[in-house]
Structure formats: structure tokens, C-alpha cells
Amino acid sequence: MAENEKREQPPGKKLERELKAIEDQVLLYAKDLARIFAERKEKERQLELTRQQLIRSARIAVLGELAAGIAHEINNILTPATGNISILLMDRNNLSQKVVERLELIEQSLTKASHMLQQVLDLSRKKPEKREHRDINAILEQSLSLLKHKFIKNQIKVEKNLQPDLPELQVDDAQIEQVFTNLTINAINAMERGDTLRISISYHPKNSATKQPYVQILFEDTGCGMPPEILAHVFEPFYTTKEKGGGTGLGLFICHGIIEKHGGTIDVASTPDKGTQFKICLPVA
Ligand SMILES: Nc1ncnc2c1ncn2[C@@H]1O[C@H](COP(=O)(O)OP(=O)(O)O)[C@@H](O)[C@H]1O
Ligand SMILES: [Mg+2]
After folding, report:
1. Does the beta carbon of 179 sit less than 6 angstroms from any atom of ligand 1?
2. Which of 91, 114, 181, 217 could form a disulfide with 280 if both were Cys (CB 3.0 to 4.6 A apart)?
3. Tell me: domain 134-283, CATH 3.30.565.10, correct?
4. If you take atom 23 of ligand 1, which residue's CA is the nearest one?
């Protein structure tokens, strides 16, 4: 009996080994499958994100064109009005103080309206773009230095998380500074004393969609945040939730236009009562 067992053992062991090998192989296949599945899921997510971005960009482009058309018409009406007020004010010595004051008030309103329209028109015009190699960290520092008094006044902390030795980007520095300024002012408006604005800039060698290197700029605030019904419209021209006279609703529309002109993307995520995050990706040319 003992002899029989001895003889049967080797085939049993062999089978065990074979089974183990098959098991290992199956495990390997399973791991491979899981990886392929995860990659596919990630690709689908990226594709959906790109699709949503394209739809949003197309909608903003249509609204932008509409806004530019109206801005152009209104500008044509405002120009002679502004001109005539200037002519009247040239003769201020022959006018009563009250009339001069009223004319100056009208002139101020007209200038404000004209400036607003000009911003929409500038964005829509296909002007040749100024592009120079620039250090994004330096542009951000410049923008923040001009807003320092607002941070102090509103008691808001600023955390900077900048990456040194970033590659220089081909940008119009005045336009990029305007984007940083608009995002910062919006964040300040959304925050209360003691809140924090965190700005992070980092280099990424490969964009998962374009496969190109890019620089990512994050603006994260701990402000009031936004519900989805507001979030869906923030990049549209003249969309504002601020009280009458508080906002023009052009800030984010301009940011979107400038970043698109630079071949980049801008996205927003927000949670009510928690805060808002704007993410900009600019390609490294
Ligand atoms: N950081 C932010 N936190 C909360 N809400 C924001 C933030 N940035 C923008 N918003 C919302 O987006 C709207 C549009 O912003 P914007 O285009 O800059 O116009 P405006 O500031 O003139 O209202 C704001 O009115 C506000 O409701
Ligand atoms: Mg704004």
C-alpha cells in the first residue's frame, strides 16, 4: 500500500505544478485585462471630457459672436454721443456747474460702457497675436503684486506652489496677466476673511489627450463655491450673479477666449460652501 502511494505521488505533484502554472497564467491574464479595462475607462473619460469641452467652446463661440455683433452696433451709437459730450464739455466755462457735473456723469457712464464693449470686440477681432517667450511664474507674481492691497484688505491668505525652472511659454504676457487677475478678483469676491487662495503652477511632460507637454495652473479658493446651475454658465458673455453694478459677467468669458487663443484649455470645478477650482493648461511650444 505504502509503495503504491509512493508511485502515485509524482503524477499528483506534477498535476499540482501544472495547475499552479495555469493559475499563475490566469492571474496574469486577469491583471492584463484589468489594466486594459482601466486604460479604456480612462480613455473614455478623456474623450467625454474633450467632447464636453468642444460643445462648451462651440456654445461660447456662438454667444461670443452674438455679443460682438451687438457690441459693435452699440459702439457705433455710443461714439457720436461720447463725441458730442466732449464737445459740450470743451465749453465748460460757459456752462453752469450743475450742467457740467451732469455732463461729466454721462461721460463717465459712456466711457464705462464703451470700455466694456471694447473688451468683447478685442476678443472677437482676429488681430495678429503677440507671442513671446515668457516665464509664467513671473507673470503670476506681477499680477499678484498689483492685487496685494485687496488680499490685505479682505484678510485673505495666498499660498503659492510654484515650480522653479519651468520652460518658458510662447504667450502674450499682458493677456495671461489679465487671466490671472480676473481669476484672482473672482476668488477674492467669493471668499471671506480667513479664507485661502492657493495657486499652483506645474510642468507636465505629456498631456493624456494631445500627448504634448504642458504647464498647468491651478487657482483653488475656499470661497462660497457654486451650484451646478451656475457653474454651467460661468464662461458665457455677460453672465453674472453679482448684484447690479457689481460685475459685468465678462471676466471668465475673456479668460476662456484668451486661453483658447493660446491653444490651451480652462476648466472649472466647484462645490457649494467648499470652494472653486479653475484649471488652466497651456501647451509648451
Ligand atoms: N471663484 C469663484 N467662486 C464662486 N463663484 C465664482 C467664482 N468665479 C466666478 N464665479 C461666478 O461666475 C460668475 C461669472 O464670473 P465673471 O465672468 O468673472 O463675471 P463677474 O465677476 O463680472 O460676475 C460670477 O458672477 C460668479 O457667480
Ligand atoms: Mg469677474
Report:
1. no
2. 217
3. yes
4. 240
